[in-house]
Design a protein that fits this description.
The complex is a heterodimer of chains A (474) and B (428).
Chain A lengths: L11 H7 L9 H10 L7 H5 L6 H9 L3 H11 L3 H7 L6 H4 L11 H15 L13 E5 L3 H12 L3 E5 L8 H4 L8 H12 L4 E3 L10 H7 L2 E4 L19 E3 H9 L12 E5 L3 H12 L4 E5 L11 H9 L3 E3 L2 E8 L5 E11 L10 E3 L5 E4 L2 E4 L7 H6 L4 E2 L2 E2 L13 E3 L14 H41 L1
Parallel strand pairs in A: 1-2, 1-4, 2-3, 4-16, 5-13, 6-7, 6-13, 7-8
Antiparallel strand pairs in A: 9-10, 10-11, 10-12, 14-15
Chain B lengths: L5 E3 L2 E3 L3 E3 L8 H10 L3 E7 L10 E6 L2 E8 L8 H14 L4 E6 L5 H13 L4 E5 L13 H4 L2 H14 L4 E4 L7 H10 L4 E4 L3 E3 L2 E2 L6 E2 L9 E4 L4 H12 L8 E4 L5 H9 L2 E6 L1 H6 L3 H16 L26 E6 L9 H9 L4 E6 L2 E6 L9 H5 L6 E6 L8 H20 L1
Parallel strand pairs in B: 3-4, 3-16, 4-7, 7-8, 8-9, 9-10, 10-15, 15-16
Antiparallel strand pairs in B: 1-2, 5-6, 6-14, 11-14, 12-13, 17-20, 18-19
Helix pairs in contact in B: 1-2, 3-5, 5-6, 8-10
The chains are: A alpha/beta (474), B alpha/beta (428).
């Protein structure tokens, strides 16, 4: 039988079912049982393990005592994207990993309880927070992802007039566009965006700062600018054939499955190779399966040990039937006369002895080149840095990672703060949603503290002036 | 397997697990099902003058996600005609001659009423009678149940009237809604009771609905106090059984009732002086089959202890149940935290720090945080070991006594002697 070379499309209803959320929420009974199992530890290690420091025993006790609004408020107070984090946090290495019951029975399902409480708040619809009394200061936030939303919400609660500039038509950043729907339905992230908007934050979408709006204008019109523009698309592999039809960027591939326009690639029956072994590569692979791909493999130049994807994501991918080709490096993408991908040429690799930095480098094995017949190639080797924007703002950076004061998130321009993925990398920060949320929170705290201290010092100066006048009068 | 047969004032039963007089023993169908399931005896739901029951009768207290920590009811005595009950009692006893079939009775405190009901019930063939002086709701408003059970003279007199007519053993069921249960127990004995059973239910209101502000349960918008039972009342019942068991003026067999849900509960009641036990809530929660687990558990316990008959348990712990004034004030226990087993939930720390004697330190070693008791400051209150969620993580260990054994009563006696000596000296 002739293999089909042109890829087909699945029934949109089937696609919708394929992308429906995998994990079920807890039933009321399960939530009551699980919340009652929590020991309500004192100085609980789960709180310390949560980057946003959610008072976990407290919100769980509130679930157990039928106070879901209290539970949701506790969660969302500490983490403005707490509903998203309930679904996407690697809980087994964070809160649940720290649960003392790991040593006695089984850890509390903190993520699922968090989801139970935030799902209640979403269904309830009433706002959990109120804006602070206006303090007359204006803040512009560049990028409406988790870090920017978090900063915006905290600033609004402190009385700042906040405007968020979001390049895409919908805010939420990777929560809205980049996390696969079967882990995180878009509606969850959009609810979090709505919560921020309801505090009076002006969220202006489809505005690309630097292109649609000059940075000078922002710097002039606002007292403070928060830069939380994240990262860009997947950078080029730098190999032949990247322009061929059937080569996709993993970030865009995932995004296409989350948009209403159904602009996702036609992968039904296709053989897909995903390049890279991070969480985005897994997302691209599992999305490909759900788009109907017949066979999906992950091609990675190092081994499982160096893979950056979470263990649970790796397991999830294996359950989806995804093949992992370790120590395999793509060297060329080959196409047919119509310019469509037909093969991925790879070379086998081996790991060097550990170098001075302790890392084992992958080295090609000479003459081991081979071709994998494929219909699509998806690249997932990281994300581009926002160098152009950073340079327009005139900020000091290290290869696109904005340099900040680690305690205040202040950049080289005292008026500009930066948080989230734009400061991640070069040994700085974490790439988790929950870390971005915490950074946004701390950035807002630093900004509030700065203006409070400014007011105090102005008041002191004024008092000094009065004293001088009194002295003069004597 | 151990011998589980028991005898209560001459009433023989294949095991100590009897169903208490309550909804589970309402009909012949139910009691026969219970005997088939393995229950050793049953006390038939109270017979008396015709009554009418309300709709909406039971309520429960749930705790920490667990159902039925406590149970409350406003159901009265049987609402079925006496003739029907008597016919079914007769049939049941005929089918199960070796099971204990006792019938609970409640009538107005009148001699002829007691004589009449005792005769009618004994005529159909029963193993014994239980006088219901305990139900705290409904019937008490008509001068029966706990209303008469709270008056020692009425307990004594009515017991006497029942005894005048009875040829089978008479058990008097006592109410806990009283200051000192040994008083009514003694009066039951004075009236001629062959045995006493306790406790009946405790006055209770199960709760208030936070949406409607109705009582739980409510009957057409009104509530009334009910009778409380279930696991939550066990310690109250156990104490009352023990107080009666150790009382030298009581001296009749006891049927233990109150929150018994497992074989362990039953064994504890028997160790504290009960010859057999009565159970209701556990059966209402799980069905009659729960008795299989009770029988099996008790059997294995006795076998492991090398005890041939369950009768050997009866009263064995009573001599240990003393008075506070006789406790040794110089005895000391202290808490010791096993850091190997401890999971560092810090519940002991905060409990001690906030609500006890501030003697647990949070320390850090190379391997991480750990908890340690400053034994010199520990008063041995047990709180830390109570709140600790992990078995074996906190042990209460005996410490060097503060001196030779001395109780408060010893101390008072010694001081009285000293004062007497001094007074004698002064008088000279």
């Amino acid at each position: 039988m002739e293999r089909r070379t042109s890829n087909g499309m699945l029934d949109p209803e089937l696609i919708a079912r394929n992308f429906a959320e995998v994990e079920c929420g807890l039933t009321h009974k399960a939530a009551i049982e699980e919340s009652n199992r929590c020991l309500y530890c004192y100085d609980a290690p789960c709180i310390r393990a949560c980057p946003t420091g959610i008072n976990i025993p407290s919100f769980i006790k509130r679930i157990a005592t039928d106070n879901l609004k209290g539970a949701a408020t506790t969660i969302m107070d500490a983490n403005p994207v707490g509903a998203t984090c309930a679904r996407v946090c690697p809980t087994e290495v964070l809160c649940e990993g720290a649960c003392v019951l790991n040593h006695a029975s089984t850890p509390i399902m903190i993520g699922k309880l968090q989801r139970y409480a935030t799902d209640w708040a979403i269904a309830d619809g009433r706002p959990l927070f109120q804006p602070g009394a206006a303090n007359g200061r204006r803040v512009a936030v560049i990028g409406g992802g988790p870090a920017g939303l978090s900063a915006a919400r905290e600033l609004a609660r402190d009385g700042f007039a906040v405007t968020v500039y979001e390049a895409k038509p919908l805010a939420g950043g990777l929560d809205t566009h980049g996390i696969v729907s079967f882990r995180l339905p878009q509606s969850i992230s959009l609810w979090e965006v709505e919560q921020v908007a309801r505090l009076g934050v002006d969220i202006r979408t489809s505005v690309k700062v630097g292109d649609d709006l000059p940075v000078e204008q922002l710097l002039q019109q606002y007292d403070v600018v928060v830069l939380s523009a994240g990262m860009g698309d997947v950078p080029p592999l730098g190999i032949e054939g990247e322009q061929l039809e059937g080569v996709y960027d993993a970030i865009r591939l995932v995004e296409s499955t989350k948009s209403d326009t159904h602009s996702y690639p036609e992968l039904a029956g296709a053989r897909v190779a995903v390049i890279g072994a991070g969480n985005t590569a897994i997302d691209a692979a599992t999305c490909s399966v759900r788009l109907g791909a017949e066979h999906v493999r992950i091609v990675y130049r190092r081994t499982k040990a160096e893979m950056t994807a979470y263990a649970f994501e790796f397991e999830f991918a294996k359950q989806d039937g995804i093949e992992f080709n370790w120590l395999t490096n793509p060297v060329r993408i080959i196409g047919d006369e119509q310019g469509r991908v037909t093969h991925l040429e790879c070379v086998r690799m081996q790991l060097s002895e550990a170098g001075t930095d302790g890392r084992r480098m992958p080295i090609p094995i000479e003459g081991s080149e081979f071709r994998i017949p494929v219909d699509a190639v998806v690249t997932a080797i990281g994300q581009k840095r926002r160098v152009a924007l950073i340079e327009k703002l005139g900020l000091t950076h290290d290869r696109g990672v904005v340099t900040i004061d680690r305690s205040t998130f202040r950049t080289s321009n005292p008026k500009v703060y930066a948080c989230g993925d734009i400061v991640f990398g070069a040994g700085q920060g974490e790439a988790m949603v929950v870390s971005a949320a915490e950074q946004g929170k701390r950035t807002a705290q630093a900004i509030s503290l700065f203006f409070t201290q400014l007011l105090d010092s102005e008041a002191e100066a004024a008092a000094d002036v009065v004293e001088v006048h009194e002295d003069a009068a004597m | 397997m151990a011998d589980l047969r028991v005898s209560l004032a001459g009433i023989e039963a294949p095991n100590p697990f009897w169903l208490a007089s309550a909804p589970p023993t309402n009909t012949g169908y139910q009691v026969q099902r219970a005997f088939e399931a393995g229950w050793g005896g049953a006390v038939w739901k109270t017979l008396g003058e015709p009554i009418i029951n309300t709709s909406s009768r039971f309520a429960a207290v749930h705790f920490g996600g667990q159902r039925v920590a406590g149970f409350n009811n406003i159901e009265l005595i049987t609402d079925r005609p006496l003739e029907v009950n008597l016919k079914e009692i007769y049939e049941t006893k005929k089918k199960f001659p070796n099971h204990a079939l006792v019938v609970s009775l409640m009538v107005e405190p009148k001699r002829e009423k007691w004589h009449e009901i005792v005769k009618r019930v004994e005529d159909v063939g029963v193993d014994g009678l239980e006088l219901n002086f305990g139900c705290p709701h409904g019937m008490a408003e008509r001068g029966m149940g706990s209303a008469s059970g709270q008056q020692p003279d009425l307990v004594e007199m009515q017991t006497m009237w029942a005894k005048e007519a009875a040829s089978t053993p008479v058990i008097v069921k006592l109410t806990p809604n009283i200051t000192d249960i040994t008083v009514t127990a003694r009066h039951a004995v004075l009236g001629g009771a062959d045995a006493i059973s306790m406790i009946n239910t405790i006055n209770s209101l199960a709760g208030v609905d936070l949406d409607s502000w109705q009582t739980i349960p409510h009957v057409a918008g009104k509530g009334a106090h009910g009778g409380y039972c279930g696991p939550a009342v066990k310690p109250i019942a156990l104490n009352m059984v023990a107080e009666c068991a150790r009382h030298s003026d009581i001296g009749v067999p006891i049927s233990g009732i109150g929150g018994i849900a497992t074989w362990q509960d039953a064994a504890e009641f028997m160790l504290m002086g009960a010859s057999a036990v009565q159970i209701c809530t556990a059966a209402m929660h799980h069905g009659f089959r729960i008795v299989e687990e009770m029988i099996d558990g008790l059997n294995h316990y006795l076998d492991n202890k090398g005890i041939a008959s369950v009768k050997e348990l009866v009263g064995k712990a009573v001599p240990r149940y003393s008075k506070w004034g006789d406790l040794d004030l110089n005895y000391r226990v202290v808490a010791r935290i096993n850091t190997e087993t401890c999971i560092n939930c810090n519940k002991c720390y905060i409990a001690c720090e906030d609500t006890s004697h501030q003697c647990i330190d949070r320390l850090t070693s190379e391997s991480g945080p750990y908890l340690q008791v400053r034994e010199e400051d520990c008063v041995g209150c047990n709180l830390c070991s109570i709140v600790c969620p992990v078995d074996g993580a906190i042990e209460m260990v005996e410490a060097e006594p503060a001196g030779a054994p001395m109780s408060w009563n010893d101390r008072m006696r010694t001081m009285a002697n000293l004062n007497a000596g001094k007074a004698g000296m002064e008088a000279r």
